[in-house]
Amino acid sequence: MTFTTLLSGRSAKAPEAPATDVALDLRNVQKTYDTPGRPEVEAIRNLDFRINRGELVCVVGPSGAGKTTLLRSIAGLLDLTAGEVVLDGTPVTGPPDGMAVVFQEYGRSLFPWMTVRQNVELPLKEKGVPKAERKAKAERALAEVSLTEAADQHPWQLSGGMQQRVAIARAVAYEPTVLLMDEPFAAVDAQTRAELEDLVRSLWKHLGVTVLFVTHDIDEAVYLGERVVVLSNRPTVLMEDVSVDLPAERDQLTTRSDPRFGELRGHVYSLIQKAKAGHRPDEDQEA
Amino acid sequence: MTRYLKSAGYTLGLPVILLTGWWFASAGSTNPFWPPLSTILEAFPTTWTMDRIVGDILPSLARLGIGFGIAVVLGLVLGTAIGLSPSLRALSEPVLEFFRAVPPPVLVPIIALFAGYTGWLGKIVTIALGCLWPILLNTVEGVRGLEPTLTDTAKSYRLSPWRRLVFVILPGASPRIFTGARQSLSIGVILMVISELFGANRGLGAAIVQFQRSFAIPQMWTGVIVLGLIGVLLATLFKLVENRMLAWYVGQRQIERGA
């Protein structure tokens, strides 16, 4: 089908595209929850930043900073109050083509009535990928996350970390241009988390996919990201867009003991502390 | 092997005790309405001949099957629609509550007025209407109670409404749907009998009433036993289907409970 050739053509081309090519563009995004009979809640006051093609950007913020609201808005699962999210030059009005989301609650984002393989193949079926190709893509994606053996098991038969790897495999097999991850490792233990972080780095590097990774963990954000977008408390604005100038080759031991890692971590940490204390860049300008 | 013996022991233990108790308690009975179990069992083969099985039991079961089938299809279709649409739900809720509160046997004389006492139609309508509510209401709840993250996942992968229905919504609601269907089935068996009590001349319920009216008391008792056996058989069949379709649900729950 032309649809699939188009798609594979795009994903093959993506890494060669110029670095200035914008994959995801947030233009003055605002979100106010206006439920009838309840007080209005201004969740996001104004966010305006862009993510270049092939970049891995982490978003951190104090708890209640509207991280999930932001991610759901980008994913097209939530209507914006004002502003727009533009993916590949097209404004997002609903869940866009070419975007995959990995949710925090892995146990609830996998379909328990399907096997691991069926979970990975379902979105491909929707795309109209022919059966043989679908099978091959699923196999490949499961191999990427080292879960080939678990293909015929059901998600609930696997450990938490493995389940989240299934969700990642499903997203990878979909071949998205932008991969959104919403605190994907918040619910797994520390060792598994370190493994999964390295998995995300390596997948990002050899698939050339653009990743937006939302987390509340400062270390994780600095370790994974090329950039860390720090959010203020609610109503959310941008605190700072921190560029992470660590070497591209990262590993849990050397990177985390790198003095520069410590500095960046400290910097992001103090930003978060300031955000928690109610410090807001938009109010500074007024003062 | 021992495992099978043990489970057979658990399944058959209580029935054997009850039957033995019945056997001895009724052994010397001279009360015509309460004949000894031995007399009842003697009457069994002469009562439930091939002719009766084909003429009474099978038509009753066929009506039950058709009525239950209609209820399942209608319940799934309406329940899914109502579960997915808040406005449809607001619109239909008072009506649903009203119909749910009406005991299904009350409908029998009313339906008989319109669809006739003797034909199949009135009986099937009675069974279908009685079976509809548990399935319908449970489907609504099952569809509404779907895990929001699953819905989000289905949306973000842009699953078409049809795929969402078949691969996400219905399987997700299936534990509740089965709960409803099980309730419906037992209501269906009751209505199968009740629908035959008025003016029908063939069918399991009609046969039992005729035995009673002609003072064929041991035969009447055999009818009650046949009904009970049919109930057990249907429940077993239902369980088999349920175990197959909900294997994932049972497995998941066992693991969540930390087994």
TrEMBL record, chain A:
Pfam families: ABC_tran. The keyword Transport applies. Keywords: ATP-binding, Nucleotide-binding, Transport. SUPFAM superfamilies: P-loop containing nucleoside triphosphate hydrolases. GO terms for molecular function: ATP binding. Residues 24-258 form the ABC transporter domain. PROSITE patterns: ABC_TRANSPORTER_1, ABC_TRANSPORTER_2. This is ABC transporter ATP-binding protein. It comes from Demequina zhanjiangensis.
From TrEMBL, chain B:
It comes from the Bacteria. Its main location: membrane. Keywords: Cell membrane, Membrane, Transmembrane, Transmembrane helix, Transport. Residues 57-242 form the ABC transmembrane type-1 domain. SUPFAM superfamilies: MetI-like. It is a multi-pass membrane protein. Coiled coil: none annotated. It is found in: Cell membrane. Pfam families: BPD_transp_1 (PF00528). The chain crosses the membrane at residues 7-25, 64-85, 106-136, 185-209, 221-241. InterPro entries: MetI-like (IPR000515), MetI-like_sf (IPR035906). Belongs to the binding-protein-dependent transport system permease family. This is ABC transporter permease. It comes from Demequina zhanjiangensis.
